[in-house]
Amino acid sequence: MIILGIESSCDETGMALYDSDVGLLGHVLSSQTKIHNKYGGVVPELASRDHVKKLVPLLDSLLVEQKLSLDEISLIAFTNGPGLLGPLLTGAAFAKTLAWVNNIRSIEIDHLEAHIFSAMISEKNLQPPFISLLVSGGHTLVSKIDQHNSYEIIGKSLDDSAGEVFDKVARKMGLKYPGGPEISMAAEKTKNSRYKFPRPMLNSNDLNFSFSGLKTHVVREIERIKLDDKLISEISYDFQEAIIDILIHKSITAAKMFDVPRIAVSGGVSANTRLRERFKNESPGIDVFFPSLEFSTDNGAMIAYLGYLKSNETTINNLKIQPSPTSSVF
Ligand code: KG4
Ligand code: ZN
User: Fold this and answer.
1) Residue 155 CB partners (closer than 8 Å, separation 6+)
2) Given Cys at both, which of 49, 170, 252, 313 links 175, Cβ 3.0 to 4.6 Å?
3) Which CATH number applies to 2-116+296-309?
4) Closest CA to ligand 1's atom 21
5) pTM score over 0.85
6) Within the chain, which residue ranges are assigned CATH 3.30.420.40?
7) Three-state DSSP state, 106
8) Class of domain 128-290
């Protein structure tokens, strides 16, 4: 069975083909970062317009590359939320029309769930149960995953997500959008820092997070000083270490608390080199899995893959999208 996955929840148009016997066949991605860069964040209307432009050519190129035709596809999986309303609508309308005209079944996919299982695309040793740490631009969630359709959220950010504070602090320092990779690059230029920022809720007796106080603290410091490249590197260094300290500590606590010695880290922030390196070194006795780098940030492969995992579930034939997190799950 071949599944087509379509992602359009924010500023990436992604498409992929997954074969239930062979695995991932291929994927294509069009990123809009150049469009949104000068605004310091995603402009929803510009994002929708670009999705409209890219959906058809991306599908054509993917089918040509894989030497496949639409009649060989048995299921179309598309993101129905959470995300930006306009971008979600363009992808949903495209996916539903394609499915209807070609008499193909379609399935709605929750973007967060897709991130959670993204490491399983390449990591064949990763199977539930596992602890999931999802760190994206919109969410920071710790969940206990028992099966692909059975979860329990055991921790979340009470305010900003980790990705969001990376983006906001980067913007304050005049770095480009998205801020995560920019801060990571700036941090790599130094081995230490004169700063020691707070690690909010590091020792709270729960698995929740709070990043907005850290963001405000760093922003106030930036406003107080005259920034130069050295200071940008040193601020980036300890700011990144602070976030990583908290993410690692909470995930390991969750793994121990539930006696599940496997952690899967996913979402855009999981692309962070230092986070990957430190997680592996600081979690003896626990297997830590990450998606391939290209599937950390938004992509069509994770949508096609979750479509495959859910391929036996009943299809819902409407054009419903869920800009806010799907209530039944998160
Ligand atoms: O998962 P994602 O692509 O989109 C959402 O679903 O939100 O995550 C985007 C977020 C942005 O906040 C971006 O700054 C962050 O992931 N990000 C990173 C890195 N690459 C992307 N954060 C830290 N280090 C990175 N290398
Ligand atoms: Zn995402």
Assistant:
1) 141, 142, 206, 207, 208, 209, 250, 254
2) 170
3) 3.30.420.40
4) 268
5) yes
6) 2-116+296-309, 128-290
7) strand
8) alpha beta
Give the closest residue (by CA) to ligand 1 atom 3.
297
Taking alpha carbons only, the member of 114, 211, 116, 106 closest to residue 167 is: 211
Choice from 42, 79, 269 to test ligand 1 binding pocket (greatest atom count within 8 A of CB): 269
Alpha-helical (H) ranges within 136-228 are 162-172, 179-187, 212-224
Q: Distance of alpha carbon 201 from its chain centroid, rounded?
A: 23
Give me 209's structure tokens.
Answer: 């997070």
Rounded-to-10 torsion of CA 51, 52, 57, 61:
40
The residues lining ligand 1, judged by C-beta closer than 6 Å to any ligand atom, are 10, 136-138, 163, 166-167, 178-181, 184, 267-269, 271-272, 297-298
Angle of CA points 121, 165, 141, to nearest 5°: 45
Question: pLDDT 10s digit of each residue in the chain, 330 long?
Answer: 999 999 999 999 999 999 999 999 999 999 999 999 888 889 999 999 999 999 999 999 999 999 999 999 999 999 999 999 999 999 999 999 999 999 999 999 999 999 999 999 999 999 999 999 999 999 999 999 998 888 899 999 999 999 999 999 999 999 999 999 999 999 999 999 999 999 999 999 999 999 999 999 999 999 999 999 999 999 999 999 999 999 999 999 999 999 999 999 999 999 999 999 999 999 999 999 999 999 999 999 999 999 999 998 865 555 456 676 543 443
* Token reading at 239: 């700011």
Return d(Cα 113, Cα 303) in angstroms, integer.
Answer: 9
Query: Per this entry, what is the length of the chain?
Result: 330
Q: Which atom of ligand 1 is nearest to the CA of 240?
A: 23
Amino acid identity for residue 113 in this structure: E
Residue type, 126: L
Q: How far apart are the CA of 14 and the centre of ligand 2, in A?
A: 11
Give distance in angstroms: CA of 148 to centre of ligand 1: 23
Q: Which atom of ligand 1 is nearest to the CA of 9?
A: 6
